[in-house]
Design brief:
alpha+beta; 26% strand
């Protein structure tokens, strides 16, 4: 059971869930997927649509202003930066398709699913398929509403979690900051007021393994 904050005013950084996996095989099995409530299913549908290069203002509103998005390439720590990432995807990829997914955790405050996503690049005629564990830490204020919002969105494609240290993390943060400078999008501009919303210092762990507060979990 997750031990996430119950107070929506707490900044997004505090809603991170951490885990390592016995291996890095996150291949989903839809036949074993947990059934979600209709409101939670609509949230997952919107997140998958964002992954699939179908951003809309309403879908980006699935995140709180102080949200965090954390994957192997990006660390975006407000909704303005997050909007830049989602609206940039169609400029970078010819197509993105969710091949299949499996809900593995459905708890108060947390949804986790294995996702298999195929990405087709625009410039290089190549498609890459990535299996990852997606963790959505939910906003306590809206988690029981018809429109659930996300505080922390983590996409983990390797067995280890993220340490938030070193050159790799510096690049992730730099990338999220740079995208905003090159986006001329009225949709992204809708979220400019979210710059700096509720930020805290990035939590660092020294390691992405168990000793870095990332216990081994079979998910």
């Amino acid at each position: 059971m997750s031990n996430l904050p119950k107070d929506s005013s707490v900044p997004g950084e505090q809603f991170e869930v951490r885990q390592t996996h016995p291996d890095e095989d996150y291949t989903p099995d839809p036949s074993k997927s947990l059934k979600l409530s209709p409101a939670r299913q609509r949230l997952v549908d919107d997140i998958i649509a964002l992954y699939s290069c179908e951003p809309t203002i309403e879908r980006v509103k699935r995140y709180t202003p102080d949200c965090v998005y954390d994957d192997q390439f990006v660390y975006a720590n407000d909704r303005y930066k997050m909007a830049g990432q989602w609206f940039a995807l169609p400029k970078l990829f010819k197509a993105s398709k969710c091949e299949r997914y499996q809900i593995v955790v459905d708890e108060p405050g947390l949804i986790q699913f294995r996702n298999e996503q195929s990405w087709t690049f625009k410039i290089i005629p190549k498609t890459a398929t990535i299996n990852a564990l997606v963790s959505l830490s939910l906003d306590p204020e809206t988690e029981n509403s018809d429109f659930i919002r996300v505080k922390y969105h983590k996409d983990q494609a390797n067995d280890k979690d993220y340490s938030h240290e070193g050159l790799g993390f510096s690049f992730k943060k730099w990338q999220a900051d740079q995208v905003m400078k090159h986006m001329d999008s009225p949709e992204v501009a809708q979220f400019e007021a979210d710059k700096g919303a509720g930020k805290e210092a990035v939590k660092t762990y020294g390691s992405g393994a168990a000793e870095g507060s990332a216990p081994t979990k079979e998910l």
